[in-house]
Specification:
This protein is of the alpha/beta class. It has a single domain, classed as TIM Barrel (Alpha-Beta Barrel). The chain has 14 helices and 14 strands. Strands 1, 2, 9, 10, 11, 12, 13 and 14 form an eight-stranded mixed sheet that branches. Helix 12 links the parallel strand 11 and strand 12. Helix 7 crosses helix 8 and helix 7 crosses helix 9. The radius of gyration is 21 Å and the shape is globular.
Length: 366
């Protein structure tokens, strides 16, 4: 089977250029269009009434949904079909002892650390129920994909995001102040364990050329690729970020071939300078947060200016308004930053809108 997008080999070349702060003409773009004509192959019947656990763990059902999306949509420009096999945002926590709580929209993790002083070291357990199950589900998804769509590396998460989930975020805030040396020791343990799990997932999903995609952010790379983050950073000072988080991210990015940081919400902006000091980091993705304008707003240009000045690529999601608004915002971003290292993502649109947007980019944004 072949990847169900318009030009997969060309898409991979554009991604490689983007990771390296370059381009192959226009900016990289994710454009998905709802097909105007019914699919030649009928859609598969999907189960509508599903339990929260089934929504997350029924790989066969989710593969049917992915195949139906492929039949009813066109994946244009650098869009490619993909499937998530997540156990929530931060499954590393359940591999290390937490228990998941499945809801329709997310997965929560039950705190398992009562006291860092007595909990003991974090260790890899190859027989952990959730680790074995998750890896098996990912492998099942790859088999079901049959090369038609990518199966993403799950959202493992890293550093203090995992520790705060295993401990309890409020209690963990005090731990950073009361026992910083112990927390540093646990972060180092997370850093070492992360790649045991990441490498196994990478080996399960990588294509014959060594490429892989990472969940939720529509990114592909020709090697070990991941989104990295620290959402807990919204609760800590720049000094704490530099002490506890920045060194961990540096180690992680050195071991990855391609990395993109997920900067989430206004309270995380204060750590942008520290992030830009991580020379191994390739790109930054900005999530404005609830109640804020989308990534195409000129309000965020100071963030993007700093990212571009630091020699890193930009991932920008444009979604407020309609096709005219999306096109106008994309034009502003192109005029300011050029095509190199610029990745623009848009909502699902009609085929006519998609063709018009792509034609404009091919002719004018080069």
């Amino acid at each position: 089977m072949m990847m169900r997008c318009e030009n997969w080999e060309w898409t991979k070349k554009r991604f490689e250029a983007w990771w390296n702060q370059s381009s192959l003409g226009r900016p990289m773009m994710r454009i998905i269009a709802k097909r105007e004509t019914p699919p030649e192959i009928p859609e598969e019947e999907e189960t509508l009434d599903r339990s929260p656990e089934d929504i997350w763990l029924n790989v066969a059902e989710n593969a049917r949904k992915t195949r139906n999306n492929i039949r009813t949509h066109r994946y244009m420009a650098e869009a490619f079909p993909e499937m998530d096999v997540n156990m929530g945002p931060g499954s590393l926590a359940i591999y290390l002892g937490s228990e998941p709580v499945f809801t329709p929209d997310t997965v929560w993790y039950k705190p398992v650390i009562d006291d860092f002083n007595t909990f003991g070291p974090l260790q890899y357990d190859p027989d952990n129920l959730w680790w074995k199950k998750h890896l098996a589900l990912v492998r099942q998804a790859v088999s079901l994909a049959g090369g038609e769509f990518m199966v993403n590396i799950p959202d493992l998460l890293e550093n203090v995001d995992i520790l705060s989930a295993m401990r309890d975020p409020q209690k963990f805030c005090y731990d950073l102040i009361d026992r910083p040396e112990i927390i540093e020791s646990y972060i180092n343990q997370i850093d070492e364990l992360y790649f045991i799990y990441y490498d196994a997932m990478y080996d399960a999903v990588k294509t014959p050329d060594g490429g892989c995609s990472y969940t939720a952010f529509c990114i592909w790379g020709p090697g070990k690729t991941a989104k990295v983050q620290c959402d807990f950073s919204a609760l800590i000072s720049p000094a704490q970020f530099r002490r506890f988080v920045q060194p961990s991210l540096m180690k992680q990015c050195r071991k990855l071939n391609y990395s993109m940081y997920h900067l989430d919400g206004p309270d995380a902006i204060r750590h942008l300078d520290a992030l830009m000091e991580i020379k191994e980091l390739n790109a930054l993705q900005w999530t404005p947060g609830a109640g804020q304008p989308d990534g195409g707003s000129e309000q965020w240009l100071p963030i993007y200016d700093k990212v571009k000045k630091s020699g890193k690529s930009l991932w920008i999601n444009i979604y407020d308004g309609d096709i005219r608004d999306w096109t106008r915002k994309a034009e502003v971003l192109y005029r300011r930053y050029g095509s190199d290292g610029l990745y623009l993502l848009f909502p699902v649109m009609s085929e006519r809108e998609a063709e018009g947007l792509l034609n404009k980019a091919e002719k004018e944004w080069r």
